[in-house]
Amino acid sequence: MASGPSRAPRSAPREATQLGALSEGGRLAQISLGPGEKVEAVGPYTVQGILGRGGMGIVYEVRRDDSGQVYALKTIEARFLSLEDANATKRFHHEITVMARLEHPNVVRLFDHGFAHHPMGYDMAYFVMERLVGQGLEKRLAAGRAFTPGEALRCAQDVTAALVYLESHGVLHRDIKPANLFACDDGRVVLMDFGLARSAELTRLTRAGHVIGTLPYMSPEALRAEETSSAVDVYALGAVLFELLSLQYPFKAKDPNELVRQIKRGVTWPEEVRFVGEEVEVRELISQMLHADPAVRPSPKEVAARASALARASASPTPRPAPPPQAPITQSMV
């Protein structure tokens, strides 16, 4: 993998907070909304404030009218979901049904969804998620703060725990990246934003040759629009861990086409790339996760086991050899 020098801290993402997340410290984000963007209610939820906004919708803090429970609600304009396409509509509803059944501490919880009419005259879908407090990993990277191997291993443990759980339910995430990982104040790393997630049952509904994902974290087989497995999520997590430790992307290219070629070739990891407090075993694990051949990559369960073992070894102090015996000290009397 060709890689460049440590990059400058990147600019903050456009979306001030991620799906289901409060701004840092639990405060509501101060977002300037255009005419007609302020709403008082969405379905059975009363809007209490703005958490953030993205290219396809806005994230609100809401309170459910009947229970009084507070959630994060993300709206998406229906036009972004291609709901006029019957096949896309079926896929959308099926994926929401799948996600609503998932319950895991490292997977953001979906509680409700529906459709509503916006005051500006367009239809929108909405998703009601658990409200998280902490910091997104992308924000830490933007500040130029690399992870130590121990921190990266703990992140890997949580994310792979989520992946093992998703795999047991036949679900692929397909868009693992720092912007979709959230470090909660309670110590969890939570996998968010399942907009690209796909149930294994939906293979027949997914258009052939359709490339889905975020380029720097996409595996060679995903770029070729081949049939994918949990290996695509393992690859993406490997790219994330590489970035967390080195503040660099695994590949450096002058344009997207060159980046695609490099990813497909699976360029050898250059010796000059160094991690903060690098440990050889961590480097080897990430290198295997980024292997161009999905059959060679470890499974989510294998990554989880190795990350856990490495974290334990890293936390245990290295035993020191006993000092050699010394001759007894004698004092001379003057």
> Which CATH class of the largest domain is shown?
Mainly Alpha
Task: Report mean pLDDT, rounded to a whole number.
Answer: 75
DSSP strand count: 11
Kindly name the structural category. alpha+beta
How far is the N terminus from the C terminus?
Answer: 72 Å
Which second-level CATH architecture of the largest domain applies?
Answer: Orthogonal Bundle
Q: What fold name goes in the CATH topology slot of the largest domain?
A: Transferase(Phosphotransferase), domain 1
Please provide a written account of the structure.
The chain has helices spanning 86-100, 137-142, 149-168, 220-223, 231-246, 256-265, 280-289, 300-315; strands at residues 41-42, 45-53, 58-64, 70-77, 110-117, 123-129, 134-136, 171-172, 181-184, 189-191, 198-199. It has 334 residues and is α+β, with helices and mostly antiparallel strands. It folds into two domains: 24-129, 2-Layer Sandwich (Phosphorylase Kinase, domain 1); 134-313, Transferase(Phosphotransferase) domain 1 (Transferase(Phosphotransferase), domain 1, Orthogonal Bundle). Strands 1-2-3-4-6-5 form a six-stranded antiparallel sheet, with helices on one face. The chain has a three-stranded antiparallel sheet with strand order 7-9-10. Strands 8-11 form a two-stranded antiparallel sheet. A hairpin with a 5-residue loop joins strand 5 (110-117) and strand 6. Residues 1-33, 199-211 and 318-334 have low confidence and may be disordered.
